[in-house]
Structures are given as C-alpha cells and as structure tokens.
Design a protein that fits this description.
The chain is of the alpha/beta class and about 210 residues long. The chain contains 8 helices and 7 strands; from the N terminus they run αααβαβαββαβααββ.
C-alpha cells in the first residue's frame, strides 16, 4: 500500500495541495482529457450525478455542462472549500464530506457515478467500486479515472510506494470483482511523454436491487 493510500495522510496532503491544486492539476489532468472522459458516458439533462472525490470541482464543472443535478463528495474539507468558492455550498452543487468506501446515500440513487483523481488514494478500491454499484441505478454507468501504471520498472516501484497506479488488466479485475458489466478502458494523455490516465466506464447490472 502506498504512503497516500492512508486516509489520514491523504487528508493532510490535500490540506496543503489544495492551495495550489488548480494551478498544478492542468499539467496532469486538463480540460481536454476531462472532456474526452465525459464523451465516454451518456449524461442527459436532469440526470442525478455523483462526483466522488470531487476535490476543488474541476470535474464537477464539466458535469454541470450536461446536468444541473450534481452532487459532490470528498473527504478533504480543504479541497471542498475551493469548490464552495466556485459553486457555493448549496447553490449549483450539493456537497457532502464523506468516504468513497462508505457512501452516505441510499441504493439506486444516481443515474451516473463519476470519480476522477481519487481512486489512487483508496485503501480498498474494490470496496469503493462496490459502493458505486450500490448507489448507481440498475443499468446506469460508472466512470473512474486514475493514474495509468508507469511502464518503467523503476518508476513503477516508486509510484506504487506513493499511491495506487494500475493498468487496464488491473482495472478490469477490480471492476469485475465489484460486479460491473460492459467494462471499457481508455488511456488519456495531455501530450506524448506526459503522465497517462486510465479511464474506465462500466455499467451496473440491470437487475441490481
């Protein structure tokens, strides 16, 4: 388990990163990559969408282009305070402080569950994905974006010591273990040579109850 796959350490990390997050983030996860990920899912006006690990609201902003019913959850109050400055606490987005592995929502509550830049900090990713399936409506989509596994053995060992990095095979395993169907993966990258992200979209079983 990486250093930042500890919830207390991750909260402390984001306490300080939140001050510069919106300036640093575009070098790793920019609008073009976010919009490409958004093209992987079907969002209709009025769909109820959950943004898990919403942080400062970068993905939230993209989701709001498609629906007005967006709910953001994060464990870092420092990150969410930046999102409050953009959207208000209860104006355009309903925010919750919470844990991806124990979502504070009823079953079958959302038309889409989205998470970008969060899975790498989850100690138990399959447990969190199972929670995503629980709160997603039967037959609805879930999309998760995380850091693609570095190809260099040296960088791979360094990356794994910090947080979760994974490849398509591991993403497939995690989503299948959580009970998802119709699983697809896409690699996203700002430019050649820059860090790669892996986006996975899947559907909750249509007969889920």
């Amino acid at each position: 388990m990486g250093v930042l796959e500890n919830k207390a350490r991750a909260r402390l990390f984001y306490k300080y990163l939140s001050k510069v997050y919106d300036r640093v983030n575009p070098f790793i996860w920019n609008e073009e990559m976010r919009d490409e990920a958004l093209e992987m899912v079907d969002i209709e006006g009025g769909d109820r969408v959950l943004d898990v690990g919403c942080g400062t609201g970068f993905a939230t902003e993209g989701l709001l282009r498609h629906t007005d019913d967006v709910h953001g959850l994060d464990q870092s109050m420092h990150q969410m305070e930046k999102a409050f400055e953009k959207f208000g606490k209860r104006d355009r987005v309903r925010f919750y402080r919470g844990d991806a592995e124990r979502l504070p929502f009823r079953a079958n509550a959302f038309d889409l569950v989205w998470s970008s830049g969060s899975i790498e900090y989850w100690p138990n990713p399959v447990d969190a994905l199972a929670e995503f399936r629980r709160v997603a409506k039967p037959g609805s989509q879930v999309l998760v974006v995380g850091p693609d596994d570095p190809k260099s053995t040296l960088f791979q060992k360094l990356a794994d010591a910090i947080m979760l990095f994974y490849d398509e095979e591991e993403a497939q395993r995690m989503f299948e273990a959580a009970g998802f169907e119709a699983i697809e993966h896409r690699i996203l990258q700002r430019r050649p040579g820059s860090p790669r992200a892996i986006a996975t979209v899947a559907r909750a079983p249509a007969d889920d109850e």
